[in-house]
Amino acid sequence: MRYYVYFDRYRHPSEAINENELAEKYDNDPAKFRKAMSGEGPNATAEQAVGHVGVLNFESVKELQAYLDAGEEIAGFYECRADSRPYNF
User: Fold this and answer.
1) How far apart are CA 30 and CA 5, in angstroms?
2) What's the confidence (pLDDT) of residue 77?
3) String of DSSP letters for 27-39
4) pLDDT along the chain (89 residues), means of 10
5) Using CB atoms within 10 A as the burial measure, which of 3, 74, 77, 84 is most buried?
6) Cα gap 46→41, rounded to integer Å
7) Residue 43 φ/ψ, nearest 5 degrees
8) Strands across the sheet with 2-7, in order?
9) How far is CA 5 from the centre of its chain?
10) How far apart are CA 24 and CA 28, in angstroms?
């Protein structure tokens, strides 16, 4: 099943909902989910919300819970472990 996972400003997964809950509670809009989870308040725009919503697939709720309990953080482009460096043009 497809889950929408909210990652906080420190890139730790903190909340997850399935696609049915997203449709019922947030009109099938991940930006509304992100805004609600960020705690920025009802008048904040989606652009002001801090965090990220990732779409992940898990076979069961148990697998999802194991992922959330592990507390893995997402790594961005600049945190890759490959031997590369930015180029200045």
Assistant:
1) 10
2) 46
3) TT-HHHHHHHHHT
4) 86 88 92 81 59 85 86 55 52
5) 3
6) 10
7) -95, -5
8) 13-18, 2-7, 52-57
9) 4
10) 7
